[in-house]
Amino acid sequence: MCIRDRIGAHKDVDAFSFTVAEKGVYSFITDFQKVAESDVFLAIKLYDENGALVESINEPTSQGTLYPMVHFLNPGTYYAMVEHDGRNGYQFDNSSPYTLCAASIDTEELADNDTKADADSIAVTAGGTTIEGALDYNKDEDWYELSIPNAGDGDFQILEVNFDSSSAQGFYQYEVSVVD
Fold first, then answer.
1. Which residue stretches of the chain have pLDDT < 50?
2. Cα-Cα-Cα-Cα dihedral sign, residues 45, 46, 51, 52
3. Distances (CA, A) of 23 to 27, 48, 50, 76, 132
4. Strands 24-32 and 66-73, how do they pair?
5. d(Cα 127, Cα 158) in Å, to the nearest integer?
6. Would you state the torsion angle of the CA atoms of residues 55, 60, 63, 66, taken in this order, to the nearest 10 degrees?
7. What is the reported pLDDT for 143?
8. Contact present, 93 and 12 (Cβ < 8 Å)
9. pLDDT of amino acid 49
10. Which residues contact 54 (CB under 8 A, 6 or more apart)?
11. Do 27 and 101 form a contact (C-beta atoms < 8 A)?
12. With a threshold of 0.85, does the pTM exceed it?
């Protein structure tokens, strides 16, 4: 579902509601085709039905026009607020159209192993073990508890971690941590 609107005045705030019928991963992507000489900047905020802020973005991605938010959401009503963030004072350009699209996203997993307590148990073999996972939404964490075999000849082991983000969209950043 996409909604097209525009920032029509200084400090304009547009509010939209979205109903999430079942838990899942949802994207809220705002495409703001800013005119090059425009002084208008957007701020996009996503709130849950209790008014708690889920995410706030006031800078587009490196691609320059997109303000993406992708989250695991439980059923309920969510509110997106698109507003002029006031950075340019009162010099306002009224040609500020944007499109806000909300959609459900197919995902590999839904919060299956997002906490240390829910970590997937993996028995690592001497010949190497491949673990496949997916980081599909903002603040998604995948936890794994590794059972590592005894070292054998020597008293150290090496754990090599490779992370392939080549198929990810360019505006996402990832962090891989190994915790003992």
1. none
2. negative
3. 13, 13, 17, 9, 23
4. antiparallel
5. 12
6. 60
7. 86
8. no
9. 93
10. 46, 47, 48, 69, 71, 73, 78
11. yes
12. no
The pLDDT score that the predictor gives to residue 76 is 95
Task: Give the tens place of pLDDT for each residue, 41-82.
Answer: 788 999 999 999 998 888 777 666 888 888 889 999 999 998
User: Phi and psi at residue 82, in whole multiples of 5°?
Assistant: -115, 125
Provide DSSP, 22-34: SSEEEEEEEEE--
Q: Which two tokens stand for residue 6?
A: 């525009």
Contact 83, 13 (CB under 8 A): yes
Under a CB-based contact definition with an 8 Å cutoff, are residues 27 and 69 in contact? yes
β-pair partners for 32: 98
pLDDT at position 119 is 86
Quickly tell me which residue has 């944007």 as its tokens: 98
As separate numbers, helices (DSSP H) first and strands (DSSP E) second, the chain gives 0, 10
In the chain, the amino acid numbered 12 is: D
The pair of three-digit structure tokens given for residue 122, joined into one six-digit string: 């993996």
CA atoms lying within 13 Å on the CB side of residue 102: 15
Q: What is the DSSP string of 67-95?
A: EEEEEEE-SEEEEEEEEE--TTTT---S-
Task: Give the residue carrying structure tokens 């009162």.
Answer: 90
